[in-house]
Specification:
Layout: E1 2-6, H1 15-28, E2 33-37, H2 43-51, E3 55-57, H3 63-69, E4 74-78, H4 85-94, E5 97-102, H5 106-126, E6 131-139, H6 145-156, E7 162-165, H7 168-171, H8 173-176, H9 188-201
């Protein structure tokens, strides 16, 4: 089972949208998925009902126990921006992969850089094995993608695992419960390839 944490202390970077899209993509390629929603807004829980994906709000049951009970090969945890302290340490200690989405804005990149440093310290302290995967979200398609990625990698001191556009179709995944592959978005195949690449980086094979 792959246990994937989607987190960033910076709000508004698209954690929940990305978690939902990863869940649907994993289902499309034949994997059983379960979700844990740690955000009080409950957006992922509402999505899970639409998409009929097993979910849990909060940590009433241990993450791995919950995933085993639901027969899931992939457990995705969407976190609140304020996740910190012992809650964050425990999540990092047990995760197989940690996806850290951010946008290309200067404020988000700076905040994400600080958060990545904190995650690395926690990993060293807890001897965590999780792979840290920064992801660029809501990218501007009217600017050079390669330049945006290169600048982000330089500031984050880490390779970018995948990128996703600032597209209404991508945001509507949460509202519809349907994967972007089933939309009419012109770049849906490119987005789906990036989602599959990200799942592969997290240890989920096709």
């Amino acid at each position: 089972m792959a246990f994937v944490l989607v987190t960033n202390s910076k709000g508004g970077v698209g954690k929940t949208t990305l978690t939902a899209s990863l869940a649907l993509t994993a289902q499309d390629i034949g994997h059983d998925v379960a979700l844990i929603d740690l955000d009080r807004q409950g957006s992922l829980s509402q999505f899970a009902k639409l998409a009929t994906i097993p979910y849990q709000s909060g940590l009433q049951m241990g993450p791995r126990k919950f995933a085993r009970k639901k027969g899931a090969g992939l457990l995705l945890i969407d976190t609140k921006a304020t996740l910190r302290g012992r809650e964050l340490e425990e999540a990092v200690a047990h995760a197989d992969a940690i996806i850290v989405p951010c946008t290309t804005s200067h404020v988000d990149i700076e905040a994400t850089s600080r958060f990545l440093k904190r995650l690395r310290r926690i990993k060293d302290l807890k001897k965590g094995r999780a792979l840290l995967i920064p992801v660029l979200n809501r990218m501007r398609l009217n600017a050079s993608l390669s330049d945006q990625i290169a600048q982000a990698e330089l500031k984050l001191h880490a390779p970018i695992g995948a990128w996703f556009p600032a597209a209404k179709a991508f945001e509507e995944v949460l509202e519809s419960g349907r994967s972007i592959q089933r939309s009419r978005y012109a770049r849906r195949n490119e987005v789906t390839e990036n989602l599959q690449k990200l799942l592969h980086l997290c240890g989920l094979n096709r």
